[in-house]
C-alpha cells in the first residue's frame, strides 16, 4: 500500500460503507436512501450544475491503488452532471505534476489528487488553488493546508489501534500470550503509524507480549518471504497482525506451506480475498482492519459538492469540512457480508 497521511481530522462515518453513504448526500438533489454498495446509483435522475472533475493518482501497481481508480471512475459515472478528466497514473513525481498542470490548463472545475508524493506535489496543489480550482487532497497529504480545500483519507494509527484491540480481546484471558507483526515498508510514515497504534493498544493487555516484527514490501512475494522468516524464527505464538491484505496473500501461502494453524491472523486494508477467507472461516485469517478505497468515491462526491457550491448532507454547515478521516472498522465473520461489496481485488 502507498504512503499515506498522518493527519487525522474529523472522524466521518463508521466504516468504508458509511463514508460513501454519508457523503452521497453532498448535494441537495441526492436520494435519501442510497444503498451502501458502490455498485448502486449514487444519485437520482435530478442533476445540478455541470461539474468537470480532474482526477490524478499514482500508478495502480497495487490492488488498493487499482481500487482507488475504479471507485473514482464508477462514482463519477453515476452522476449525470459530472464529467471526469482522469490522467494516466504515474509514480514519477515530475510526470504527475505535468499531468496535474495539464488539468489546470484545461480549467477543470475541481481537482481530486492522490499524490505519488505529498510533499513533492505540494507546489502544484498550491498552483491549482491559486488558479481558483479547489483541490480535494486524497489520502497522501500535501505539506501545506493551503494546497487543498479538503483532505479525505484513512487513519493509519487507528488501523493499528483497532487491530491491537481486536487481538487483545481475543487473547485477554490467555497467560503469557505472544503476538507477532508483519509490517509494510518501514521507510513509509504510514507503517510507523500502524505499528504505533498497534503497540498502544497492546499496552492495555499486560498478558500479551509482542515477540517479533518483520517489515515486508506490500507485495505477495515479500509477504511470503518475510512470513516464512517469521515462522522459522517463532515456533510458538498466538496471533499475527499483517498490515496489508495484498502481502497477506503471500503470508497465507507461507503459513500453509509450513502447516501452521496454531494462531489467529488479522489483516489490513479490505481485499476481497481476505473477506472471502474470513467468511469461509477455515483458516488462520479471522479478521481484517479496513483502509477503505471507497474514499475515492467519496472524494468525487466532495468534488461535485465543491463544484456546485453545496455542503454535506446531514451536516448543518453550508460548506464541506476541511478534513475527513475515515474509520478503520474491523471486519470479521460476524459482519463480513456487510462489507463484501467493497472488497478490492
UniProtKB/TrEMBL annotation:
Region entry Disordered, spans: 25-58
Superkingdom in the source lineage: Bacteria
Gene3D superfamilies membership: 3.40.50.2300
Compartments, record wording: Cell envelope
Main location: other
Assigned keywords, A-Z: Signal
MF terms (GO), sorted A to Z: carbohydrate binding
Xref: InterPro entries: Peripla_BP_I (IPR028082), SBP_2_dom (IPR025997), TAT_signal (IPR006311)
One GO CC term on file: cell envelope
Pfam families assigned to the protein according to its UniProt record, in alphabetical order: Peripla_BP_4
Family note: Belongs to the bacterial solute-binding protein 2 family.
UniProt protein name: Substrate-binding domain-containing protein
Organism: Streptomyces montanus
